[in-house]
Amino acid sequence: MKKYFQFEELGTNYRREFIGGLTTFLSMAYILFVNPLTLSLASVPDFPNELRMDQGAVFTATALAAAIGSLLMGLIARYPIALAPGMGLNAFFAFTVVLTMGIPWQTALSGVLVSGLIFIVLTTSGLREKIINSIPEELKYAVGAGIGLFITFVGFQNAGIITNNDAVLVGLGNLKDGNALLAIFGVFVTVIFMVKRINGGIFYGMILTAIVGMIFQLIDVPTQVVGAVPSLEPTFGAAFANLDQLFTIQMLVVILTFLFADFFDTAGTLVAVANQAGLIKENKLPRASKALFADSAATVIGSILGTSTTTSYIESSAGVAAGARTGFASVVTAGLFLLALFFSPLLGVITAPVTAPALIIVGILMVSSLGKIDWNKFEIAVPAFLTIIAMPLTYSIATGIAIGFIFYPVTMIVKGKAKEIHPIMYGLFIIFILYFVFLAG
């Protein structure tokens, strides 16, 4: 075991790897409760119940997808990087694809499945690098920042801090409302944990917020903590049901969005965490193809189980900071996600005001990529800004990406930089034009 994970070479031991794996788990455990609420559209009261995903099934799918994905990453790629259904991608799945586009969640899962299969093909064929490299870095950063703003907006909405205002579309909610006050408390507490650099700050913030909610009778006290594992039956295999409905421009854009977002998220996380752990050799990432395969395979498995795109988590950096250097830490994290399956009764105390602070804080972390965009170049600033601002304003991640990818070739050509545009970007330009024509029709 020590030899396989190269303990001596990397200067680590079982204790450091266990603590690192535990730290990573605590840093990302919030997804176990946020994902079921997000995918079931629990914050949308007037949505038909028969069109919602089953929260219990999504909880189980989330834990299993995280466990299997982390195990694959640990055993195959041997990196201290854990996986789980991605924040941002789950919001796109629920609020854009299902709620806004009116696409059944079963079909959306089919889209996730296909995007994962394409990811596997691109990874094994070597085309992945070509596609990623065809998209300018500024647009990649803009997509990340835009998703961050979108998630934050959803968090404020779920908390009741931002509400509908017929005069100006949105406005400040009733801050005297108990749930809004609970969410505000959660934001303050979580911010304090994060500023103090406490590992698992988001998770601890949710726990403390839930406890305060129960004290003030805003949340029902659970009758039990440990219970039976919820059945996967409502979601398992649903991704295979509607594969014939994927052959439309609308679903093509959905699949591409799942694919691109996973591309950027995974590549950025792998490089960032591996660099932090000192695993990058001669500016190259060893076993990169294995890591990407583990990520894409986890997405396919997760979609079959019944959850949105599974991806590498930047929270793994917390585990690395605690000493993790090998894939054994990911194996530990996987085991903890399996153990978490028995704590499903706690789902009842994780309400929208409890998860809202997590969404807001994750949004803050994601918009850090704004600083990497060269705002002095107007031909770059225009598509980047429109990508970012369109996501929360149109309540659609896909629309934000489409607008940015349409404007980029236009501004670059006008600037006289047509030769700098990769041919793939022209193809995406046409696809997204057709996307708007299709929606208009």
From TrEMBL:
GO terms for cellular component: plasma membrane. It is found in: Cell membrane. InterPro entries: Azg-like, Azg-like_bact_archaea, NCS2. It comes from the Bacteria. Keywords: Cell membrane, Membrane, Transmembrane, Transmembrane helix, Transport. The keyword Transcription regulation does not apply. It is a multi-pass membrane protein. One of its GO terms (molecular function) is purine nucleobase transmembrane transporter activity. The chain crosses the membrane at residues 21-44, 56-76, 83-103, 109-127, 139-158, 178-195, 202-219, 326-347, 354-373, 385-411, 423-440. Belongs to the nucleobase:cation symporter-2 (NCS2) (TC 2.A.40) family. Azg-like subfamily. This is Guanine permease.
